[in-house]
Amino acid sequence: MAASAKTIPLESSNAISDWTVVLPRRGKRRRNFLKSKHPEQNQQPWAPTDLEMDLNRESKLMEKIQMCMKKLENSSFYHVLLDQVQTPHILEAFLRVLGHESKMQMVVYGIGSIESYEPPRLQLSLAMLLKRKFSWIGDIEVFDPILSATESRVLENLGCSVLSVNEQGQRQASKPTLFFMPHCEAELYDNLVQVNWRTERLNNIVLFGNSFGTYEEHVSEFRSSTIVDSSRHILAVQKFTHEFAINTVSDDYFGAFHDTSWHFFSLVA
Q: Distance (Å, rounded) from C-alpha 140 to C-alpha 134?
């Protein structure tokens, strides 16, 4: 699909009026997200509010995550997902985003509490297993404002970097980036798309998160709903989106990954 200019026009549409879609899930709280033409103005320094160091908690959490990774690695869900990623059309899409780069960084937004709930642990485990499996996935950066000091230290011990700034999802994709965002709020996806609303930036993005197609279906079906205007970029980018739904395979992984898809944005400058 082609765009005639590097900056993509955002067309008005009756379907792109005020709307909001909330997908409740355990371990993740609804948050307020800011909008600005200058995203750096919204980004604020962040640190865990609890500074207590508890080595026993850290050890127990590390054990939980290692068990979770082992469970996931041996599951049919994981092997089906690996097979999907390695199908020619999806692998080709990844390689197109990589271009001449050897690595694609991974940014994990909105992971939730990995200490309190299993779905966030499963999501983190998948991110780490994908990095282990594919040599072209680079360093992992993680952020969620609800992360505790214990969770942050465990993430760092696992080789992840915990961001010290709340980017509000407004990371400009100046290089190939895999945004790993299962079950985030619509506003967070919209922030990401909006700040990258240029051909060269959208072409640098792979997004693993809630199905954009499902958001479009919600708008078509529930036209009378109260909808937030800040989510309109999700709809507007649909014409440039190639989406591949994943198969949760079993109920064990439904809570962590239902209605999740790979998204690639194919535009020509």
A: 13
